[in-house]
Amino acid sequence: MWKGRDVISIRDFSKKDIEHVLKTAEKLENELKEREALDYAKGKILATLFFEPSTRTRLSFESAMHRLGGNVIGFAEASTSSVKKGESLRDTIKTVEQYSDVIVIRHPKEGAARLAAEVAEIPVINAGDGSNQHPTQTLLDLYTIKKEFGKIDGLKIGLLGDLKYGRTVHSLSEALAFYDIELYLISPELLKMPRHIIEELREKGVKIYETSDLEKVIGELDLLYVTRIQKERFPDEQEYLKVKGSYVIDCALLARAKEGLKIMHPLPRVDEIHPEVDKSKHAIYFRQVFSGVPVRMALLGLTLGVVE
């Protein structure tokens, strides 16, 4: 049953669940090509609670709800809410659920989305909690990969950059374990993927290669998923300065890549992908951004029980 279901962690999903979301997203995207707006969520209200900055995630959720025919309320930063007055997260959630049918929350603290789901009697969707999970980003990433390659199985996928604090790569690597892929983990020593995630992936049979040398493996990859090194996640700025600018993707580097290499990035980027790459055949990160709309339409429709 999807109606009323929370979307907190990709770990709560089976492969069957993931494939159902991707198929539903494809269906809704095709319907949007025929009609500018749908009416599945007419009369329904989405509350977006963003305690942390966001552009793509917040706006794509709002766009998704509007395209489903629903309405949106919420706030884009905690300073504009009663949190500034000292209101607890629990009380905020209990209040907001009185006004809405589904809640999307982004919060800097790990576990905040799970707490919100425990408190609320309506569906809660995690839009990112600290360095923990970002399940809707993972689903739109999988959707993008499937659209671009026509498959996920059989690909050699590189995850590059901040693998320690990057919630997008944590969630994505766990979802990719459902597929027959080879995973290249490319990062500075200070930002390696947490050992418990690597051990879990290996237990599930994923072939993993760890390296700090991008140039050494760039020619092996079908897909390179780039992440920025997140200054805001570092407890010590000096540690950040040690790894700042560790990797820069430019056309000179891409001359060594496979002809069909695709480059993804959850955005925002800082300096890890040179703007000259944007016009190359390898760059698909802006198409990746669009995938957020049909995928989040699917998740909203399913959890509200208005699409099957």
Notable characteristics:
single chain; 308 residues; alpha/beta; five-stranded parallel β-sheet; four-stranded parallel β-sheet; 15% strand; globular
Quick structural summary:
The protein is α/β, with parallel strands linked by helices and 308 residues long. It has eleven helices and nine strands.
Can you give a write-up of this model?
By secondary structure, this protein is α/β, with parallel strands linked by helices. The chain is 38% helix and 15% strand. It is built from eleven helices and nine strands. Helix 2 links the parallel strand 1 and strand 2. The protein is globular, with a radius of gyration of 19 Å. The model has no long low-confidence stretch (mean pLDDT 91).
* Amount of helix: 25-40%
Low-pLDDT runs: none
Gross geometry: globular
Overall mean pLDDT score?
Answer: 91
Helical/strand content category: alpha/beta
Distance between the termini: 10 Å
Biggest β-sheet description? 5 strands, parallel
What's the multimeric state?
A: single chain
- The radius of gyration is 19 Å
> How many E strands?
9
Order of helices and strands: HEHEHEHEHEHEHEHEHHEH
Strand content: 5-15%
Helix count, per DSSP? Answer: 11
- Looking across the biggest beta sheet, what order are the strands in? 7-6-5-8-9
